[in-house]
Structures are given as C-alpha cells and as structure tokens.
C-alpha cells in the first residue's frame, strides 16, 4: 500500500505569517484500488511552536497534519476503504448502464491529482 500526503493550501496571518489553517489531501494506492481523503486542520497561536513562514517545508507541515490527525488513524481509514472496494458486499449500479460505462465512471470518480 502506497500513501501520498500533500499540502494543498495554507492560510496564514498577514501580520506575522502564522499558519492558521492547513488544507491537505491523502491518497492510498494498492494496485488497481485507490482511496483518498482531504480536509483542513486549524492551529492557534500559543500552542508552543512557531516556525517562520519562509522557513516552512512541505515535510514540516505534513508532520503537523499527521501529528494533529494521527497518521496511523488516517491511513487505517484509507486501508479500510480499499478493503471495502476489494470485498464489495454491494454495488451501486443502474440496470440500463453497461458494465464498461460503469467501469469508466468508477475510474473517473476515483481519479485524484494534486499538483
């Protein structure tokens, strides 16, 4: 299973550059199966750490996200989503849609790109 964590956007205070919100996306891939989640984490000043905005790296900020959300928890949830895809107990289909069109729609729905 391969996990990719990305910082999509950050919101900062103009006065001092303090990052108040980090928007993230995480993708898990296991062969032909994939799952993703995204969201945001908010931070407040006085939490005991401060790195000047100009000195931040993506690795630093991903570390914040993983620490705030729990890296193992997020990844376990994505693994569960992929396991559900592998062992489908139900399907969401329309009887008038061909299997090929349904497959293409699922591929399109699972496509995920972060630049």
Can you put this structure into words, describing what you see?
The chain is of the alpha+beta class. It has one domain. 35% of the residues lie in helices and 29% in strands. The protein contains 3 helices and 3 strands, in the order E-E-E-H-H-H. It has a 3-stranded antiparallel beta sheet, covered by helices on one side. Strand 1 and strand 2 form a beta hairpin. Helix 1 packs across helix 2. The longest helix has 16 residues, at 71-86.
Which features would summarize this protein structure in a list?
single chain; alpha+beta; three-stranded antiparallel β-sheet; 29% strand
Furnish the topology, listing elements before pairings.
Blueprint: E1 2-12, E2 19-30, E3 33-42, H1 58-69, H2 71-86, H3 99-110
Antiparallel strand pairs: 1-2, 2-3
Helix pairs in contact: 1-2
Give a summary of the structure in a few sentences:
This protein has 115 residues and is α+β, with helices and mostly antiparallel strands.
Q: So how many helices?
A: 3
Give the integer mean of the pLDDT values. Answer: 87
Query: What is the count of structural domains?
Result: 1
With strands numbered from the N-terminus, the spatial order across the biggest sheet is 1-2-3
The stretches of 5 or more residues where confidence is low (pLDDT under 50) are none
Report the biggest beta sheet as strand number plus sense, adding barrel if it closes: 3 strands, antiparallel
Cα Rg: 18 Å
Helix content: 25-40%
Number of beta strands:
3
Helices and strands: which structural class? alpha+beta
Relative strand content: 25-35%
Question: How would the global form be characterised?
Answer: elongated
Separation of termini? 21 Å
Order of helices and strands: EEEHHH
């Amino acid at each position: 299973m391969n996990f990719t964590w990305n910082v999509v956007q950050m919101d900062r205070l103009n006065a001092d550059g303090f990052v108040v919100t980090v928007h993230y996306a995480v993708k898990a891939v296991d062969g032909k199966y994939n799952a993703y989640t995204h969201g945001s984490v908010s931070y407040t000043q006085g939490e005991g750490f401060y790195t000047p905005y100009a000195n931040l790296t993506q690795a630093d900020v991903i570390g914040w996200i993983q620490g705030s959300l729990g890296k193992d928890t997020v990844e376990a949830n994505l693994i569960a989503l992929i396991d559900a895809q592998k062992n489908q107990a139900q399907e969401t289909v329309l009887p008038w849609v061909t299997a090929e069109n349904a497959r293409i729609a699922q591929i399109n729905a699972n496509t995920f790109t972060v630049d």
